[in-house]
Amino acid sequence: MSIRVRAQESNGVVNVRALMSHDMLVPDDDGGPHFIETVEIKRNGEDAVTAHWNFTVSRNPFLQVEFDGSAGDTVSVSWTDNKGESDSTEVEVG
Amino acid sequence: MISTKRRVFLKGTLAAGTVGVAVGAGLLAPSKLLAAWPSEMFEAEGLDAAMEAALGSSDIPDSDDIDLSAPEIAENGAVVPVSVETGMDDVSEIAIFVEKNDFSLSGRYVLADGTKPKVSSRIRMGESSNVIAAVKSGDDWYKTVREVKVTVGGCGG
Asked: Closest-CA residue in chain B for A25?
């Protein structure tokens, strides 16, 4: 499992692009449904975006969002899936 | 030792009970307590039911101020890039639906103050369908609709 995150600031706005490795199995798949239900993106520990997903989000999900912020801020991205698995990562805004 | 543990246990029960009462009385919205996955929205079958569960109504006014970008023709329904952006103020939520997916609500995004009303993701589409982007500005929902033709569906096993 991994999450790749890029967070870049421009004119006071932080652009976050996150790529999460997860098979996002639909009900017809072996072992499915098995999918990310919730993604939380925080800036300096404060909620910025909470995403709730269905299994109709593509495999290895991509998410791009923007919020007010500065270079040097901390951005964390974490997910939990419907089987209780989870992953998280933290990056510094460039 | 036993009595100490018992006390800790009782304190824990009491605290949980108080929170439970507060939630039951509507003092705390459950979503504020923890970001629980709203199963009733995602398990609703068909567009109308999903919109009613997620937006409170399936009769939402159209807006020209929502930019829903998606390919006109998606060769692979397993990976359809979708972006939603709006110039509206005070946007707290964005929801994306696929009319012809059995479970139409694909994703919902709760935005905090300071977060731009703009999200991009990639979704699955079983067949050609309307894609609906809904935006909550203030207390009201608005939507825009766009047709995406799918060459090879992406929801099969």
From this structure: B157
The separation between CA B102 and the C-alpha centre of its own chain, rounded to angstroms, equals 16
List the single best residue of A26, A43, A58 to mutate versus B (max B Cβ within 10 A).
Answer: A58
- Sheet with A13-20, strands from edge to edge, namely A3-10, A13-20, A62-68, B115-123, B80-86, B66-69
Single pTM value for the model: 0.85
Structural domain A3-92, CATH architecture: Sandwich (2.60)
Nearest to B65 by CA among B140, B121, B129, B125: B140
pLDDT tens for chain B, 157 residues: list them.
444 444 444 444 444 444 444 444 444 444 444 568 999 999 999 999 999 999 999 999 999 999 999 999 999 999 999 999 999 999 999 999 999 999 999 999 999 999 999 999 999 999 999 999 999 999 999 999 999 999 987 775 4
CATH fourth-level superfamily of B37-152: SoxY domain (2.60.40.2470)
Interface of B with A in 64-123 (CB under 8 A): 78-80, 83, 98, 101, 103, 105-112, 114-116, 118-123
